[in-house]
Amino acid sequence: MSSIDRIGPLIASVVIACAAATPAIAQTAATNTIADKAAVCSACHGGNGVPVSKEIPIIWGQHAGYIFLNLRDFQSGARKNDAMAPTIATLSGSDMLALGEYFENKSWPDLEQPRAAADLVAHAAAVAGSGQCTACHLSGFLGDSANPRLAGQSIDYLRKTMRDFHDGTRGNNPWMAALLKTFTDSDIDAIAHYLGGL
Amino acid sequence: MNRSVRYAVTVGAAALAASSPAWAQETPVAPRYGDLSLVTQDLLNRADTDGNNFLMTNGNYAQTRYYPNGQINAGNVSRLRPAWIFQTDVKESMETSPIVVNGIMYVTTSFDHVYALNARTGEQIWYYAQKLGPLTIYCCGPNNRGVTVLGDKVYLATLDSKLVALDAKTGKVAWETQIADPTLGYSETMAPTAVDGKILIGTNGGEYGIRGFVRAYDAATGKQIWNFDTVPENSSGVWATTDATGRDMHRDIAAEKAALAKDGDPYKKLGGGVWQNPTVDRARHRIYFVVGNPSPDLDGAVRPGDNLYTDSLVSVDLDSGKYVCHFQYVAHDIWDLDAVSPTVLVRVRDSGGTMVDGVLHAGKTGHVYVNKADDCSLIRYSEAMVPQQNMWTLPTAQGAVMLPGANGGVEWSPMAINPGLGLTYAINLHQPMTYTVTPAAYPNGKLWLGGAFKVIAGAEQWGSVTAVDYNTGRIAWQVKTEQPMIGGILATAGGLVFTGEGNGLFKAYDAGTGSELWRFQAGAGVNAPPSSYTVDGRQYVVVAAGGNTQLDYKRGNAIIAFTLN
Lengths: 198, 565
What we know:
The complex is a heterodimer. Chain A is mainly α. Chain A has helices spanning 3-21, 34-45, 64-76, 84-87, 93-104, 118-131, 134-137, 155-167, 174-180, 185-196. In chain A, helix 3 (64-76) packs antiparallel against helix 5 (93-104), helix 6 crosses helix 10 (185-196) and helix 8 runs antiparallel to helix 10 (185-196). Chain A is globular. Chain B is mainly β. Chain B is 6% helix and 34% strand. Chain B contains 3 helices and 36 strands. Chain B has helices at 3-18, 41-45, 253-263, and strands at 66-67, 80-87, 99-101, 104-108, 113-118, 124-129, 148-150, 153-157, 162-167, 173-178, 193-195, 198-201, 213-218, 224-229, 279-281, 286-290, 312-317, 323-328, 344-349, 355-362, 368-372, 378-381, 400-402, 416-418, 423-430, 433-437, 451-455, 462-469, 475-481, 489-492, 496-500, 505-510, 516-521, 531-535, 538-545, 558-564. Chain B has a 5-stranded mixed sheet with strand order 1-30-31-32-33, with no helix packed on it. Chain B has a 4-stranded antiparallel sheet with strand order 2-36-35-34, with no helix packed on it. In chain B, strands 3-4-5-6 form a 4-stranded antiparallel sheet. The two termini of chain B are 28 Å apart. The interface between A and B is medium-sized, with 32 and 36 residues.
């Protein structure tokens, strides 16, 4: 049993506990501003941008278009997540866009993840070249608009989400699923370490 | 230098220049800054004999990319050296064709920034950065291939599917029009074309299940004049089982017909983007363009039929946008070997030896196709310019190998011709890939490929500059390059062709023989089409060196103009 399989359920339970402790973003006069709505997100994604657990992604500094599309997909169920769906159940499309822009204007935090070792870098470069990753995630894996920044993202989150694409658990991007299906566990591990260390 | 100070000085100069009579422009004098009422339709019509300006993305309405000035030639090109280098604010892929009008140069960068520069000195005159919406969904890099000019305006198309008219003297927005919904994958990376008071534009989005189009907008107001859907409501066609070259495409016509009967015509999300400028045929009052791939790229099961007019040459009436004729290079394409390199109108010999008007197109398949302008019928296709193998093997769940890989052949790179030699020049790439099919439902704003293409790690990749005799289809000469090529090429009356590579090398070749006569290391991938122009009687060649997103070539931010020592 890989370390993923041991840690996974533990993380999941933290995430769910995290979400359970958090009220859904309510649509009341008291939570009228986007800053108010965004405050709910900090319970899991971090009050200073550093997420409370390693399998939760950084959203501070992430691209607005990507945040919008995924909030939309969490709400519709195109992307499944037991923590996200109830939290954002009542968000409108314009809320989602506004939240996207709110977080895009924050600074991407430094998780102080180590630079990947040379052999992992070489492995990752070969796989990324084959998959043409920078064609969408752009130079430096900084992304743009609908395509997320990957550089400096949490290694555990990257690994988890790539595996979710690989095995079909994450269903909101068929190109990513088809491509990641062709990656092995060790390919995914190398890429996660490489990107996380950028 | 303080930008606003420079701007104030330039506007003052423009005011002085504008008071001179228009006929003074006929004599060879120093360029008049900012006086762009000179971009008349007559000037644009004569672009093919204009050895001073560079008025459109591909040189002229026929799109020959043949520059009629021989001051820089095979005899002296070894003395070519940088005249100036301008560094833009955006270090990302550059695909812009610089436009030059009376000594003012217009260039664009990724993310839709526009610069007006003094073409003699490289100094900035004005700068405009489009404020893009939060959602831009595009393919193959946040590119922009340039502006077009007409009257006193400069026109730009944007990643969030807008058409923008800027005042040519100041860069201020004159009007802005939303072309289509960017959240569905409609986007623009192409340069527009200006003709007869109209701005012509296609659309990006064939990777996202859009329904493609070519449109004409009013150049003065931005109102739509006509729309041509590149995918008709009846898209089935003739159920062709072979491609233009006669190769069997292994279609299961019975299964497709059953799917059509069950699910109806797939036209609404069939793709068919138009990536680049159309050729304008002034004599026939028509335009010619080529249409990109069907959606989803790799999974044909959900889109039965020939998928008209994807992967086709199409001609429509210039005034009305009404269909005239078409020719489909690859019916029911499931390899993304679509038609993206722009068409060229040129006199060619037909199969009987008679001179006719022909339309050239270089395919991702690796062939240059020569069709009749009159009725779009095929005259001939060239020898393959790149290795071909296992065409047309069907993509599989595990990944099938076929050459060319999905990037081609000839990708978006425009060709150039030398009419005296009867040669067309195409830059090619050889990049082996596997084709995997994985059915997927329409994903609403995400890439809809129905599978994946992967570059075969470790397989040798390279490129070529290939000269094809379009009267015979034979390859006249071919130079292999270290890396796959993407960008563009310029031919000149000096007997030269200019093109750049991802490793930073910008080269001049002898148009007749392919001998390399000059090279320059630009420090970043030279992956854009070169232009040429003349100021104060001195000829320049100019190119962007910003690298490329699709092939991941070293990024840069420079516009480099060269002249003779």
